[in-house]
Design goal:
Belongs to the enoyl-CoA hydratase/isomerase family. The chain contains ten helices and ten strands. It is α/β, with parallel strands linked by helices.
Length: 257
């Protein structure tokens, strides 16, 4: 079996989509991504995750259109339910995640990138959801995650018109976090991952969970969850280490306890 997803383990783990030239999402790639994400979720060493595509031409150009004929009449059963599960695995990781978008992220590729906390694009990157041009709709989170990131009006423009945006516009509307020179997306993501990995891991998990809740709860409920989260964080040894390191004028050495 051809390996379509490679896992580079460590504190800053990398998940590499390797289905050249455009790293399209096939059913087999999705199954292998599920296995990789399970491994990441159970690896206590991991402090940050980078997702990127092999080859430098594209992060991911979307679904494998060659599979469409076999999906006629049963796309949910044979494709979308699995993608929903796997994309949710990525979105639910407790550690921060970064999509390093070298080249284009289109259709299912952008849907995958939207599951990450940060998206770093290059100046030549194009990001879009062209599904309606093919007579289909985004089915792996695009209609739900995109408006939560860029708002309803811009999401309607991107999805209903199906036209991609360039990196500058993506940055202006908040679709990407940073834009870097061509060829530098992965290195920029690695630098960001190292910064994230240096933060207190318990505080990072709590903060990420609270931020996710902010779009799903009322302000008062969110503030109550925030108080509970702060109580949990202040019960850790990391709080004492962080304060001591600040007073000692040295980098903290967080243990995650």
């Amino acid at each position: 079996m051809t390996a379509l997803v490679h896992l580079v383990g460590g504190e800053c783990t990398e998940i590499v989509l390797d289905n050249p030239p455009m790293n399209v999402v096939s059913r087999e790639l999705t199954r292998q991504l599920r296995t990789a994400l399970r491994a990441v979720a159970h690896d206590t060493r991991v402090r940050a995750v980078i997702v990127h595509g092999a080859g430098g031409r594209a992060f991911c150009a979307g679904s494998d259109i060659a599979e469409f004929r076999t999906l006629h009449g049963r796309v949910a059963e044979d494709k979308l339910l699995l993608e929903r599960l796997v994309y949710r695995q990525l979105a639910a990781l407790e550690v921060p995640t970064i999509a390093a978008i070298e080249g284009h992220a289109l259709g299912g590729g952008l849907e995958l990138a939207l599951c990450c906390d940060f998206r770093i694009a290059t100046r030549r990157s194009k990001l879009g959801m062209p599904e309606l041009k093919l007579g289909v709709t985004p089915g792996s989170g695009g209609t739900q995650r995109l408006p939560r990131v860029i708002g309803q009006a811009r999401a309607k423009e991107m999805i209903l018109l199906g036209e991609p945006v360039d990196a500058a516009e993506a940055l202006a509307i908040g679709l990407v976090t940073r834009v870097v020179d061509d060829g530098d997306a992965v290195d920029a993501a690695r630098r960001m991952a190292e910064t994230l990995a240096a933060r207190g891991p318990v505080a990072m998990r709590v903060a990420k969970r609270l931020l996710a809740l902010s779009t799903e709860t009322s302000l008062e409920d969110g503030l109550a969850h925030e108080l509970d989260g702060s109580e949990a964080v202040f019960a850790t040894d990391d709080v004492l280490e962080g304060a001591k390191a600040f007073l000692d004028k040295r980098p903290p050495r967080f243990s995650g306890r």
